[in-house]
Design brief:
Radius of gyration: 17 Å
Distance between the termini: 41 Å
Structural class: alpha/beta
Largest sheet: 7 strands, mixed
């Protein structure tokens, strides 16, 4: 099943890393630098999708769930957006290309290697003026957003980091008064690898109104879903 598919990818990736002496993320970036059009976010996204569907699976939001992300960003039309879990910068580029003039995205990445790759990806896509990458653990960065990064409230939050951080970080966003009435949260991978604790928390919380979007795990025919939660204040 799903576990076998993912296990297969992990083994293949480790062997390839050893042979090529570089990480999968570095290979994704190199493929983009060689094949995508500089300054064209859509070309960068298409090139990453092509690599990850044909060569090596990777945990980007992907093209199918990317449409759900696009639709949500377009509906919210945020001035200030937050992404938790930058990875290679795929969804940061995806969100940034839809932001109106003067709007910006703060994206948080804990892994320094991923952050370095994402910075180059964001720069190559030409959206660096709209995106600020914050390196470190989400539980340390979220409480700094108001004072250090001059955030009043967040219009949109995309959760795509460690699944066991979804609930504590959503609680932290509320405790730090970063959500306003109408702020929208969108959480990825709620079936695979799954975030049951978060679903239980958010669906039973009267301060949130939830919508479920069934989909598939990026670049695979495995069922997955995204959860949208609107903060009611």
């Amino acid at each position: 099943g799903t576990a076998a598919l993912i296990w297969n990818e992990i083994i293949r990736e480790k062997i390839t890393n050893f042979i090529m002496k570089q990480s999968k993320e570095q290979r994704i970036l190199n493929f983009v630098l060689q094949n995508a059009v500089r300054g064209d976010p859509c070309s960068v996204l298409d090139t990453i999708d092509k690599y990850c569907s044909q060569k090596e699976w990777a945990m980007n939001v992907g093209d199918e769930k990317g449409l759900i992300l696009d639709k949500t960003v377009e509906e919210v039309n945020p001035s200030v957006a937050l992404e938790l879990g930058t990875y290679c910068g795929y969804s940061a580029v995806r969100i940034a290309r839809l932001l109106k003039a003067g709007a910006h995205l703060l994206t948080v990445e804990f892994n320094p290697e991923f952050a370095a790759i994402a910075k180059q990806m964001i720069q190559f896509a030409g959206v660096q003026d709209k995106v600020k990458l914050l390196e470190g653990p989400s539980e340390e960065i979220i409480p700094q957003l108001k004072k250090k990064y001059e955030v009043d409230t967040l219009d949109f939050v995309f959760l795509d980091h460690w699944k066991d951080r979804y609930t504590p970080d959503t609680i932290l966003l509320q405790e730090c008064n970063l959500l306003r009435k109408g702020s929208v949260l969108l959480a990825d991978n709620i079936i695979v690898p799954g975030a049951p604790e978060f679903l239980n928390y958010i669906r039973n919380n009267p301060r949130f109104q939830c919508t479920n979007y069934p989909s598939h795990l990026e670049y695979m025919k495995v069922e997955d879903a995204m959860e949208k939660a609107v903060f009611l204040g």
